[in-house]
């Protein structure tokens, strides 16, 4: 049974993330979404809120959603995964992803990384960008994030 890990902060999950996850589900028997608390980034949502937002969108998929801290290769090994899934939206993502892949390969040469691209609609979609737009006009992000995420962002930015 081939298992992959799709790690990230997912603050919040976007339709681009879900598109990549859906593609990964066609390739692997099981995909584990590893949600990193990533407190250094100052996330808008708690790790548990992010897990809940993801889980409600993948109920019928072969997906588990788990929090993880530490090195992603250690998380993958602990969960019997042999592949890491990374999303590439644009050429600008490649340099960082290339460096991270090389480091992960050095840390554990038995865990491979594969890159998946979202559909063209989501090439420019990022969690950071969704938060910026939602801060000023949460109604305008509904085609880029799941409905539960749009509602959660609206609640977070209700002060406007």
UniProtKB/TrEMBL annotation:
Pathway linked to the protein: Cofactor biosynthesis; coenzyme A biosynthesis; CoA from (R)-pantothenate: step 4/5
Enzyme class: transferase
UniProtKB keywords: ATP-binding, Coenzyme A biosynthesis, Cytoplasm, Magnesium, Nucleotide-binding, Nucleotidyltransferase, Transferase
Pfam families: CTP_transf_like
Residues reported to bind substrate: 9, 41, 72, 86
Membrane spanning residue stretches: none
Enzyme nomenclature, EC number: 2.7.7.3
Subcellular location: Cytoplasm
Catalytic activity line of the entry: (R)-4'-phosphopantetheine + ATP + H(+) = 3'-dephospho-CoA + diphosphate
InterPro entries reported in the protein's UniProt record: Cyt_trans-like, PPAT, Rossmann-like_a/b/a_fold
NCBIfam families: coaD_prev_kdtB, cyt_tran_rel
Entry's family note: Belongs to the bacterial CoaD family.
Protein function: Reversibly transfers an adenylyl group from ATP to 4'-phosphopantetheine, yielding dephospho-CoA (dPCoA) and pyrophosphate.
Name of the protein in question: Phosphopantetheine adenylyltransferase
Gene for this chain: coaD
